[in-house]
């Protein structure tokens, strides 16, 4: 380190950051205390899906850094998702005004600066704030993430998974909190005690604990976040008409008091994307870059299942073209298995005021490659808007560590006006789609009989749907109706498994049938079973009697099985 001259150190940085493809410009290097605008530090756009970490003490400029990166990603046609906890990222929709101080800074690092606006979509969890309401159904949120929100222990989490399993098997749609509450109340009632006993790992006492936690969630007003219409995470992948990536800004004005819900909801968005997106391999630029601010909230007190699910998602979603940047105070906030997946590092200043801070500083330094800097000194003396950077180059190797003065954003580093945000939300194409909550028939209505449509009896070999005793099943409507149901089931399986419209003629539901006017939507059948739909259609159409009943039972069983991902989530769409 001491043997290198300033020119040699500078040459190392210049060579390490000379890249061929499109890049995100981060700033200019500082070597031996001097700023060198000829030594530009940048991040390859193609490597953004290798994930990253933006860390640093409070007030060192982490939010401004992700602001600046989001602008350049949008300009490159890459959609961005970020959570606005403090409310100052809405300034992306407003062009910044220049000043002498700003010009001096941008000139010193070689930045050609001009005030700009960027295409921003404002979202709000459940409509809590100025933004398009974002909701998720309980069934798609899944038991692992919901357990995280309710702070259940491992045993209670396993029990909640059994409740979801019971609802899945019995065609009880879990849309909002009252649906889940109704299912648990049924299982703990005299009427449902037999079903409760069949769920061997679920005790009545544990079910009661979960029920009380649900009541607590409702008391906190969290029922607004669960319901329909469910937000389609594909909306995060949009580009503006001019080709720039849309920056989706999730407004969280009151979520400081509900940090667990906030962090867990972000993981639901990621999990849903993970389940829906196809494999993409290496791309010239990512499909989406996700910034998870206050990342430590994800991991504090997390269960082993939750941590494993995060690690799996981070490891595998790269190949689907999605990059994730965790934003937090120190690398120790992120578990080692996750930290090992983060190839791009932007480390702002750290403070070492306590022995614990000193340990964190040493741990942070140990995670960087060998460099020409005294990193302990550099990290404790770096100014606001400066960071120590190493990223993955186009060949997959780490770039030289560079103390960098970062570029300035071209939009307002602060909130946009409330009038602008409201007008942006009012003019959004998403408002008509998600603006008004709906309450479709689901588990609550079926179990309580309030406004429920008949659901019919269970197929042979299936457990009965609670609350439907005495109602005629589809098989009781006559052989013609049974034929119609078999054909409809075959069409549904073929379309959902094969991912294409069915080639079979649509079933004739004539005026003489007494089928329910609205059938509960069925979960998707397991992937990889495309021949099941063809087999069901062939057998159902060609054979009769017991074999037809067997095929019908097989189709219904497949239809009722929910595929759940690493978080126990379901990507089934009910819109």
Automatic annotation (TrEMBL):
Coiled coil ranges: none
The record's section on Pfam families has: HerA_C
Entry-linked InterPro entries: HerA_C (IPR033186), P-loop_NTPase (IPR027417), T4SS_component (IPR051162)
- In this chain, composition skew of type Basic and acidic residues spans 488-498
Residue span(s) of domain Helicase HerA-like C-terminal: 36-453
- Sequence segments annotated as region (Disordered): 452-533
Q: What is this protein called?
A: ATPase
Taxonomic source organism:
Pseudarthrobacter sulfonivorans
Classification from the root reads: Bacteria, Bacillati, Actinomycetota, Actinomycetes, Micrococcales
